[in-house]
Write a structure and sequence with these properties.
This protein is an alpha/beta fold. Helix content is about 35%, strand content about 20%. Helix 1 links the parallel strand 3 (about 25-30) and strand 4. The protein starts with a strand and ends with a helix.
């Protein structure tokens, strides 16, 4: 694991990079709500970055939003945090320009990643634990036609699995639910990783040979 600092819109952003032996592309993963303890060290964020690096051979970055950990700035209700993601992606792509770009976000980070995707145009967008009660229908509609995959816990307190499946079907996203999982996939992280891996493979992320 490599510790580094990225330039952000309002100051440096603290980040971590998980680097496979032969990077075939790039991934950036965004963390959950800063005001409720979300950081780049949140277990789901760590697992997503690990999956991208170990299974799909991508240079996987995760970072702290402004005002979290050593990242400068202060909470900006999702607006500035979306800008942070755009800056992080641009930093990552300057260093690993070849191959596919994956963008992912968990919870609050999924909402910000969905907005950032309209700017950075990832090859795949992985949404995890979307708080569906905070995601406007028009924002979901804006992603139609893009390569979107979505993993939700069946018992997610902020967006039940069935609602996620219905929303995904409405907008043409690939989606799957992890049975028995809550918002944080407590005790279900292995299942989360397996489901996410399957969806990403369906979305065209088959590993190094497919994108070398």
């Amino acid at each position: 694991m490599i510790s580094l600092t990225m330039p952000g819109p309002v100051g440096p952003l603290e980040a971590l990079l998980r680097l496979p032996p032969h990077p075939a592309g790039t991934a950036v993963v965004a963390h959950p709500h800063p005001l409720f303890g979300g950081t780049m060290h949140t277990k789901v964020v760590h697992r997503a970055a690990k999956l991208f690096a170990d299974r799909f051979h991508l240079a996987a970055y995760r970072f702290n939003f402004r005002g979290v950990g050593a990242s400068e700035g202060s909470y900006d209700d999702g607006r500035g945090e979306t800008d942070d993601i755009v800056a992080a992606v641009r930093f990552a792509r300057e260093r690993y320009a070849a191959g596919p770009l994956a963008l992912a976000g968990f919870s609050f980070g999924s909402l910000c990643a969905a907005r950032a995707a309209l700017v950075v145009e990832p090859d795949v967008l992985l949404l995890i634990g979307v708080p569906s009660d905070r995601w406007a229908e028009e924002e979901a509609r804006a992603l139609e036609g893009r390569n979107v995959v979505w993993v939700q816990g069946a018992e997610d307190q902020f967006g039940p699995g069935q609602i996620a499946l219905e929303t995904a079907a409405r907008h043409g996203f690939r989606a799957a639910v992890v049975p028995g999982a809550d918002h944080f996939f407590t005790g279900r992280l292995d299942a989360f990783e397996k489901v996410a891996s399957g969806l990403l493979a369906q979305a065209g992320f088959a590993g190094t040979k497919a994108h070398a």
